[in-house]
Amino acid sequence: MTTPEPQQPNTPLSDTKLVEDRSKLSKMYQHYVEMKDKYPHALLLYRVGDFFETFFQDAVTISRELELVLTSKHGGDVGRVAMTGVPHHAWERYTTMLVEKGYAVVICDQVEDASEAVGLVKREVTRILTPGTLLEEGMLKASRNNYLAAVVIAVNHWGLAYADISTGEFLTTQGSDLEHLTQELMRLQPSEVLFPTNAPDLGALLRPGETSPSLPQCLPPTFCYSLRSQLPFSQAEARSKILQKFKLRSLEGIGCEHLPLAVRAAGGLLEYLEDTQKQNPVSLQLLRTYTLTDYLIVDHQTRRNLEITQTVRDGTFHGSLLWALNRTSTAMGSRALRRWLLQPLLDIKGIKARQDSIQELVDNTPLRQDLRALLRKIYDLERLAGRAGSGRANARDLVALADSISLLPELAYLASEARSPFLKALQKVPPVLEELAKKIQLHIVESPPNHLKEGGLIRPSINPQLDERKATVEADQQWIATLEVDERARTGIANLKVGFNKTFGYYISISRSKSDQVPENYIRKQTLTNEERYITPELKEREARILTARDDLNQLEYEIFAALRDEVAEHADTIRNISRAVAAADVLCGLAELAVHQGYCRPEMVEGREVEVIDGRHPVVEQSLPSGFFVPNSTWLGEKNYGETNHVLRSSSRRVDTKDTKEEEKRRKNDTSYPDLVILTGPNASGKSCYLRQVGLIQLMAQIGSFVPAKSARLGICDRIFTRVGAVDDLATGQSTFMVEMNETANILNHATAKSLVLLDEIGRGTATFDGLSIAWAVAEYLAVEIKARTIFATHYHELNELASIINNVANYQVTVKELPDQIIFLHQVQPGGADKSYGIEAGRLAGLPAVVIQRAKQVMGQIEKHSKIAMGLREGL
Ligand SMILES: Nc1ncnc2c1ncn2[C@@H]1O[C@H](COP(=O)(O)OP(=O)(O)OP(=O)(O)O)[C@@H](O)[C@H]1O
């Protein structure tokens, strides 16, 4: 903790610690400092009239972060205090910016009417916002979950729990390999991670990039970490917290009774939610335990290299796989598709169930189109239920919820003939929800205002007391409305007006030239340049009645609304269950639409290891190129008898033409023996990387149950997909390009199995040619012989083509080009055989290297080739 520097005289106080004697502060600041003491690590927004003000150090931080003017205000006998503020109606916008920057924000609001307060206005903390505990619509991204995670690490084991309080999801797991914990956090991309510690910075929220010695190395520094006390994370505390929250007697039923670290993480997370959401406890679904091995493991590198949710180049959504596949119609659907893509399945039955639904929707175009048209009208039921469940929904939320629920019977009707289980799940709409929707529509006006305490929410004839109060207010308002006409007639003053302002209430306004004509019962209240304002005792009496009646009316409306919201809250889980079914149906409708429009096929999922793709395409590049420009390519991998039956592909470095590919395809029909490892060679920019990624993406798409961009496909299940693509310096951790490459390669060799799919692009490039080639050779050999993982190894080391003649389960493929006398044409076709040239100089020419450099490069290459003994040496030596 740093000691504050002494303050210069006359500069405003910018640190509460500098206030030596708090009694010298004015009353309000004393209260402010008291509150700030309770939340030293958060920014405190303190309501003063129409503003949320911040003082002392928070004012300095906020003015810097939000680029607001830093001013100061008299704080009592201590002099001036640093201050900045935001208008109260805009708090959500400013808070969102602060939370996005990784700050926790505490809202301290006025909880009594300032005009009725005796002494200091009563203020209380009404909301604590941290990155992982947001519920407000404007603060959340519709297309992705907002996860809060909790991590507990003990010797050789870890526990991880996570929740999205806006949708109610709550899951926990436990593992032993710390690498898996890191990967799981990278998959979830939580907005905030809780970590128990005994360190003195307890209670701090570390923003992304900020470090603390109490955080273990395996936790990626890219997230926000809230450092919490150990106690709620202890086994006994955590267990009882879970039992109490879900009214359970044992954890056996939810599968974590024997997973102490999973329990500790989940309990600690619940305690944090209780602590930060005191005013409105969040509603969560029953905790679920999951196992990492239930899903295809796609590590962070691979997810990045395959550009699943964002591109590598600039991190944008546009150009990612999710972008190419997303045809969903609802926010729930787009979140679900994202989750599916980040957690592909291993279970063939589960995959086939999704495929069956897609097939049904592909075959039945009217059903697909009708469902999609209806889904587009459905709001985010999942998050609406979440807000209602924790008492934060406003009247517009309830109307949106009711409108969406009332579309569900129509959805059920459309799905009534459906055969596949995912669509059948839409067939049952719980009657209680229909009743609830009707009740909301009956009670709340069609377009209610945003504010809940200013009336205008409830329809007439719902509550006799409410109608009565409304009638009184209306009668009095009517009296005032006719007063103007009556008084004009009575006084003969044609420009007499009745007006209202906040300070004086109702008044009668008369131009000064007519002031000698005012009747006797008028009492002068205010004189302006051109007019005089008067009141009458009767007018004031009416005014008092109107104001009190209106307050009562608004209060009663609010109470009726709140009771209705509580009723919705009781059914939050039911709404969420049906919204999960809607989300899944939406994803499947979208995937079916995509399959139809992009000409995808249903892959046959098999128990074996084969990866057989006929005329596959890259799902993203295909959509980015003009129609018909993408050249489809086939893939054959993963059948163990390869070497014994195959002779064609083992003839290395052979150039083949299209006829050979056709023959190869014909031969393949009767022969299921495919290599495990393919050495893929070809000129620069010919399409090797694209092909490599295409194979990975097709496999991944198949394991989420989607159809795939190919003429046909037969695919065995993969346990992991690994990629090693491109070379990027990891400056943040001080690792060189080559070290990053070697670390990633080591990870692959240590974790890949015969069921994995390994995609390697140019291993060994970042070092001297001999070292690089030797490493590449040894890595390929290890993968083919020791692990027998299905592998595509793209390389410019043509020497590796020799492996095919030495190892049975290795084959050579090349991406072909057409060579003309003074240029090459990229055919982007993958064919059997190995390439013997890279045409790198030609690529340099196309990129615009000066002609003299190209000329000189050709000369140098001629000489090097003459002297090179690399290939010969390897052939003889190995
Ligand atoms: N099958 C294909 N059909 C049409 N265009 C393709 C195909 N494959 C690749 N391309 C185009 O060729 C470009 C180069 O492809 P890619 O980056 O895969 O080449 P590469 O062989 O890996 O090159 P290098 O060895 O220099 O890394 C891509 O940007 C893509 O637009």
TrEMBL record:
UniProt entry tagged with the keyword DNA-binding: yes
UniProt feature, compositional bias: Basic and acidic residues: 654-670
Keyword Ion transport applies: no
Transmembrane spans: none
Domain annotation DNA mismatch repair proteins mutS family: ranges: 756-772
Gene3D superfamilies in alphabetical order: 1.10.1420.10, DNA repair protein MutS, domain I, MutS, connector domain, P-loop containing nucleotide triphosphate hydrolases
Known role: This protein is involved in the repair of mismatches in DNA. It is possible that it carries out the mismatch recognition step. This protein has a weak ATPase activity.
Protein name from the UniProt record: DNA mismatch repair protein MutS
Naturally occurring in which organism (per UniProt): Sphaerospermopsis torques-reginae ITEP-024
Species classification: Bacteria, Bacillati, Cyanobacteriota, Cyanophyceae, Nostocales
